[in-house]
Design brief:
By secondary structure, this protein is an alpha+beta fold. It is built from three helices and 18 strands.
C-alpha cells in the first residue's frame, strides 16, 4: 500500500509539472493575426456629429442636386493594423448584371450617364493611414450641366495592393422623375419539382425601382397557382434589364395553363405579361403509345390467323369460289362430253 500511494503522488506531481507550463504559455500567446484575405482597413461614409446624428452610422452615401452643382461629402478610412496603409480612391459606375447583382466598374469618362467620372478627391486620391488611425477624406461630385434628371448609380472605391472596398453612392439629379417598367420573355421551364417561371424585368424610367412580384396560373379547370405580391430581391437601375426565375414546385402534371406575371413598384409603375404552357407526362404518354401499338399489332396477328383457318380459300387459278352465282355450295355444270362419255 505505501508503494501504491507513493506512485500516485509521483504521477500527480508529474501531471502538474506538465500542465502548468502549457497553461502559462497559452495565456501569454499573442493575439491571432487578421485573416490573409482581410484588407486590414475599412471604408465607410463619415458619421455626423454626435449631437446631430446619434450613432452616426451611414450604410451608403445619398447625394442629390441640380445639374451644374457641386455636391460634397466625406469618406472615413480606418486602419485596424499596426502598420501604415496606403489607400487609393476613385469613383465608379454601378450597374445591374443579368441575375440582379449590383457590381461596380471603372468610371466611363465621357460616356453619358457615367456618374463615376463626376467624383474628385483633389490631393487626397492617395491616402496614407498611420497604424490604428482613422482618417476622414473629403470629396466632391460635380454634376454636369446637361445631366438628365433621375438616379445615376455610382460607387466610391478604395483600393490597396489589389484589394478593393466599395461604398454605394445613391446619386440623384433633381428634376422630373418617372417610374416605369416592363415584363418580358415570360416562360415556364422544367417540370415537376424543378419547374420555374422565367421572366425579364426592364426599367424604362429614370429612377431605381424596388419591384414587387405577383404570379397567377390558370388551368383548364381553374386557378392552379397564386403567388404574391412579394418583394423581388433586386434593385432595378434605370435603363437596365435583369433575367429572373421564380420556383414553381407545385406545377401540375397534366394541364394547359396560362401564367400571368404582374410587377409593381413605388411611384405607380406596373406591368403585366403572360405565356401559355402545356404540362404533359411525356414518359407515361410514351409508354401508353407503345402499349397501343403493341395492342394493334396483336389484333392484326389474330385477324390474320383467323383468316388463315377459313374453309373458303381463294382458288389458285383466281376463279371465284362456288358456282356461277358465286354462292357457297353451288357447283358448276360439267362439259357435255364429260356427261355422255362420247367423243364429239
Amino acid at each position: 500500500m505505501p508503494v501504491l500511494h507513493t506512485l500516485r503522488r509521483a504521477a500527480r506531481r508529474l501531471l502538474f509539472l506538465l500542465v502548468l507550463p502549457a497553461a502559462a504559455a497559452l495565456h501569454t500567446l499573442p493575439a491571432a493575426p487578421a485573416a490573409a484575405d482581410e484588407p486590414g482597413w475599412t471604408a465607410e461614409p463619415a458619421a455626423g456629429t454626435a449631437a446631430a446624428r446619434p450613432g452616426g452610422a451611414r450604410p451608403y452615401f445619398y447625394l442629390e442636386g441640380a445639374p451644374a452643382t457641386v455636391l460634397e461629402d466625406r469618406l472615413a478610412l480606418t486602419n485596424t493594423t499596426d502598420q501604415e496603409r496606403t489607400v487609393t480612391l476613385r469613383g465608379a459606375d454601378a450597374y445591374d448584371t443579368a441575375d440582379g447583382a449590383l457590381p461596380a466598374r471603372p468610371a466611363a469618362s465621357g460616356a453619358p450617364g457615367g456618374a463615376g467620372s463626376w467624383f474628385s478627391f483633389g490631393a487626397g486620391a492617395t491616402v496614407k493611414i498611420p497604424p490604428r488611425t482613422r482618417a476622414v477624406v473629403p470629396f466632391t461630385v460635380t454634376v454636369p450641366p446637361a445631366s438628365p434628371p433621375g438616379d445615376h448609380p455610382a460607387a466610391l472605391i478604395a483600393a490597396e495592393a489589389g484589394r478593393e472596398v466599395g461604398v454605394r453612392v445613391h446619386l440623384r439629379v433633381s428634376g422630373p422623375s418617372l417610374a416605369a417598367l416592363t415584363v418580358e420573355d415570360v416562360s415556364v421551364r422544367g417540370r415537376g419539382g424543378a419547374a420555374v417561371v422565367a421572366y425579364t424585368l426592364v426599367n424604362r424610367g429614370n429612377v431605381a425601382l424596388a419591384p414587387e412580384l405577383g404570379i397567377r396560373a390558370d388551368g383548364v379547370l381553374g386557378e392552379v397557382m397564386g403567388l404574391g405580391p412579394r418583394a423581388v430581391p433586386v434593385e432595378l437601375l434605370p435603363g437596365r434589364r435583369v433575367e429572373l426565375t421564380e420556383p414553381w414546385p407545385g406545377a401540375p402534371v397534366l394541364d394547359r395553363v396560362r401564367v400571368t406575371v404582374t410587377v409593381t413598384a413605388p411611384g405607380g409603375a406596373r406591368a403585366v405579361a403572360g405565356a401559355s404552357a402545356w404540362f404533359v407526362p411525356w414518359r407515361a404518354a410514351g409508354w401508353t403509345g407503345l402499349g397501343l401499338l403493341a395492342l394493334g399489332g396483336t389484333a392484326r396477328a389474330a385477324l390474320f390467323l383467323v383468316r388463315g383457318r377459313s374453309p373458303w380459300r381463294r382458288p389458285a387459278d383466281g376463279a371465284a369460289p362456288g358456282g356461277p352465282s358465286g354462292k357457297p355450295g353451288a357447283t358448276s355444270p360439267a362439259p357435255e362430253h364429260e356427261l355422255t362419255g362420247a367423243s364429239r
